[in-house]
Amino acid sequence: MPFLREPTHLLLVLLVLILLFGAKRLPDSARSLAKSLKIFKTEMKDINSDEKKAEEKKADEEDGTKK
Questions:
Q1: What is the number of alpha carbons within 13 Å of residue 39 lying toward its C-beta?
Q2: CA distances (Å), origin 4, targets 1, 22, 64
Q3: Cβ pair 21, 29 in contact under 8 A
Q4: Would you say residue 1 lies in a domain?
Q5: With helix as H, strand as E and coil as C, how does 7-40 read?
Q6: Number of domains present in the structure of the chain
Q7: Cβ atoms of 4 and 13 closer than 8 Å
Q8: What is the C-alpha separation between 23 and 25, in angstroms, rounded?
Q9: R_g of the chain computed on alpha carbons
Q10: Domain coverage including residue 36
């Protein structure tokens, strides 16, 4: 049985977060988390594109040596 299955569970978690961090710090924390996720996604795309380029280069080199 998953923990966050019902809306009341989500409300409880939000209430605890507000009590722990305060209402003023939550938006700043959310903004910094969003920036971090954006940077992470960008880096993952860069890594994937680098891997594709390396695979294409390797395939081109193999094709060149076979001829």
A1: 6
A2: 9, 22, 56
A3: yes
A4: no
A5: HHHHHHHHHHHHHHHCCCHHHHHHHHHHHHHHHH
A6: 1
A7: yes
A8: 6
A9: 23
A10: 7-66
Our CA angle for 34, 17, 41, nearest 5°, is 15
Residue 67 has pLDDT above 70, yes or no: no
The tens digit of pLDDT for each residue in 4-30 reads: 678 888 889 888 988 888 888 888 888
**Which pLDDT does position 65 carry in this prediction?**
67
Q: What is the pLDDT of residues 42-58, one digit of tens each?
A: 999 999 999 999 888 88
pTM strictly above 0.85: no
Residues comprising the chain, all counted: 67
The answer to whether 18 and 26 have CB atoms below 8 angstroms apart is: yes
**Is 26 domain-assigned?**
yes
> What span, in angstroms and rounded, lies between the C-alpha atoms of 67 and 22?
68
Amino acid letter, residue 29: S
